[in-house]
Design goal:
Blueprint lengths: L31 E8 L18 H5 L6 E8 L6 E8 L4 H4 L6 H11 L1 E8 L8 E2 L7 E3 L4 E5 L18 E3 L4 E6 L5 E5 L13 H4 L36 E4 L9 E3 L11 E4 L4 E7 L3 E3 L1 E9 L6 H7 L6 E10 L8 E8 L1 E2 L2 E2 L6 H6 L1 H6 L6 E2 L1 E6 L6 E5 L23 E7 L8 E9 L9 E2 L12 E6 L5 E5 L2 H5 L4 E5 L10 E5 L5 E8 L4 E7 L35 E7 L1
Parallel strand pairs: 7-12
Antiparallel strand pairs: 1-33, 2-3, 3-4, 4-5, 4-6, 7-8, 9-10, 10-11, 11-12, 13-14, 14-16, 15-21, 16-17, 17-18, 18-25, 19-20, 22-23, 23-24, 24-25, 25-26, 27-28, 28-29, 29-30, 31-32, 32-33
Bound molecules: MU-OXO-diiron (FEO) and calcium ion (3 copies).
């Protein structure tokens, strides 16, 4: 295979066959191998104990790799490419498979707090292209948990809406959680989206500011409030605690002493993630999805411009870029289906401009803290669960993974969300007017309308040859040639196949040619794809393998496939461990 478009020289592969949802294995193309390079419970911080699933403690977990790895990046730190920082989100916990029966409720809850958040871990290898090894106790290793102190910045910092008994300033939040997808910025920090935060709170849900975010009296099955009153939002003291989650957070991975930040200027919703591109005029533009049925796609444009270079002064300036800027929300208008394709034009409707509210009846603080309500007032397009929204740094086009929406009724379809009861999802391609990411308008089309051969309305960017079946697109990434890579979450339920990772050329004659690269084990979702085609490596975070099992009767034994009945106390855990996997050419 040569260097034809869509076939990166260093990552040629024959697509794998779709894998049945019961297969408890990682499947990679012929000629490739996979290795787990970090597992839930691996000790990271100096002094952290080895993983002992039979006797977990919050203290041990706070020094170990967290649960349910999602967003992932591998940031090289030397010229030779032999050292790097792995940065990873830990979205949530599956208590049913994490803890032995009979574990004390308080141990379960406090350990779960420490299993949430993020990890920063130093990696090393002999030469470029090798499998990475993580370095326990390394200097830059860090765990961020629900106990890590965050600073709040931007126009809503210090707002009454963010004050609680424990933080009367409204400027300091303890912890981050439900960190889903994310993005690495050009200035070397990592952005992470706080997504389904509502599920941890007891709330009355009577006010629209609560119910619009899913806060209710029935969401807190984990009962965290039994061990910390801040999770009880029905109390006057902590009524505002839910307002302190649902943000984009920014972490500087090269300084383990730095205080991570929650950026209120970027709005509050169920943030899937945020991906940044530098516009030609130097303004920094972040694209973001609100992962809920019938919710919206957002854009943030920084007030200031990025300073090039890596001087301390430039770095200090760039760390403030996401603190002030304009937030807007997308409206997609179709040009009719008579042309045979879902496409059209769109506009960015302003929610804030120059630090002021653009939504009548809302203060700037209200727009930013109750962003969903402010957006509702300006009639954006209700999307089929927009997850990852990421610009291609090569083409400047933006890709929106709309994972699915089985609640959309026939009367609710529009050209950008064209299928009722949409179980398979689609991918939107957005093209900024004149290549300007600060423009108020854009063109768009659906590059993928996902499914298998039985799916109505499926469409693959005009490609009419064979494709791998694909459903429920979630995360997107790009390789060095600009091909789109899509990972999925939900294929087992939608089309009966294990979730996977797919390559899709977006230019040239193979535009839309979906090819499956790997499949993850039973019950798992494919997260955080990182495509390093120039060195023949692909990384994925395998999230919630075997999630419907129990500790005693696991439904997955990924990644070590330890025989059932082994002695957990001897480090022989027969259950699944969410892990970061590196795929290399064998
Ligand atoms: Fe946590 Fe929207 O996926
Ligand atoms: Ca059309
Ligand atoms: Ca996701
Ligand atoms: Ca991505």
């Amino acid at each position: 295979t040569g260097a034809a478009p869509g076939r990166p020289r260093q990552l040629p592969f024959t697509p794998i066959a779709p894998q049945a949802r019961t297969l408890d294995a990682v499947t990679v193309p012929a000629g490739y191998r996979w290795d787990a390079i970090l597992r839930w419970g691996d000790p990271i911080l100096a002094g952290a104990p080895a993983f002992d699933p039979a006797a977990q403690t919050p203290e041990a977990q706070a020094g170990q790799f967290g649960y349910n790895n999602d967003y992932l990046d591998i940031i090289e730190t030397n010229r030779a490419g032999t050292t790097a920082l792995l940065v990873c989100n830990h979205e949530y916990t599956n208590e049913n498979i994490m803890f032995p029966p009979g574990t004390a409720a308080e141990t379960v809850v406090r350990t779960a707090w420490a299993a949430h958040g993020m990890s920063v871990v130093e990696l090393t290898r002999r030469k470029r292209g090798d499998v990475w090894t993580y370095v326990p106790g390394a200097r830059l290793n860090r765990r961020i948990t629900l106990d890590t102190i965050f600073t709040v910045d931007g126009p809503a910092a210090g707002s009454d809406l963010l004050k609680t008994k424990a933080d009367p300033t409204g400027r300091t939040v303890r912890g981050t959680m439900n960190n889903c997808a994310g993005g690495t910025t050009p200035w070397g920090t990592v952005l992470s989206g706080e997504e389904n935060f509502n599920q941890y709170f007891l709330a009355t849900g009577t006010e629209r500011t609560e119910s619009r975010y899913g806060l209710s009296p029935t969401q807190d099955s984990r009962r965290w409030r039994d061990f910390d009153p801040r999770w009880n939002a029905t109390s006057a003291d902590y009524k505002n605690e839910p307002n302190r989650f649902g943000w984009i957070v920014e972490v500087g991975p090269t300084d383990p002493t730095s205080t991570p930040v929650k950026h209120t200027a970027m709005g509050r919703f169920k943030h899937e993630g945020a991906n940044v591109i530098v516009n030609s005029d130097g303004h920094v533009v972040a694209y973001m999805g609100d992962d809920e049925r019938f919710d919206y796609v957002y854009r943030f444009v920084s007030r200031d411009t990025m300073r090039p270079g890596n001087s301390p002064k430039a770095r200090q300036h760039n760390l403030t870029l996401l603190s002030e800027g304009d937030l807007s929300v997308a409206r997609f208008t179709g040009d009719g289906l008579a042309d045979g394709v879902s496409d059209g034009t769109g506009e960015w409707i302003p929610l804030t401009r120059g630090g002021a509210s653009m939504v009548p009846g809302f203060t700037i603080e209200e727009v930013l803290v109750f962003t969903r309500l402010a957006a509702d007032a300006v009639q954006p397009t209700k999307m089929d669960r927009p997850e990852d929204v990421e610009p291609s740094l090569r083409s400047g086009r933006i890709y929106v993974a709309c994972t699915n929406n089985t609640s959309r009724q026939a009367a609710q379809v529009d050209e950008a969300n064209p299928r009722p009861l949409n179980k398979d999802g689609h991918v939107v391609e957005m093209i900024p007017t004149n290549g300007d990411h600060t423009a108020n308008t854009f063109a768009w089309n659906l590059i993928l309308i996902c499914g298998n051969e039985q799916s109505a309305g499926r469409y693959f960017g005009g490609w009419t040859g064979p494709v791998s079946p694909i459903s429920c697109p979630d995360n997107v990434a790009f390789d060095s040639e600009g091909n789109l890579w899509v990972s999925t979450d939900g294929q087992p339920a939608a089309i009966g196949l294990n979730d996977g990772l797919f390559k899709v050329p977006v230019d040239g004659p193979e535009r839309g040619h979906v090819q499956q690269f790997l499949a993850v084990p039973s019950g798992a979702e494919t997260c955080g794809p990182v495509i390093r085609d120039l060195e023949g490596s692909v990384f994925v975070a395998v999230q919630h393998p075997g999630e419907d099992g129990t500790y005693a009767a696991p439904q997955s034994r990924f990644p070590d496939y330890v025989p059932a009945g082994s002695n957990a106390a001897a480090g022989q855990f027969a259950g699944p461990r969410p892990s970061v996997v590196q795929v290399t050419r064998s």
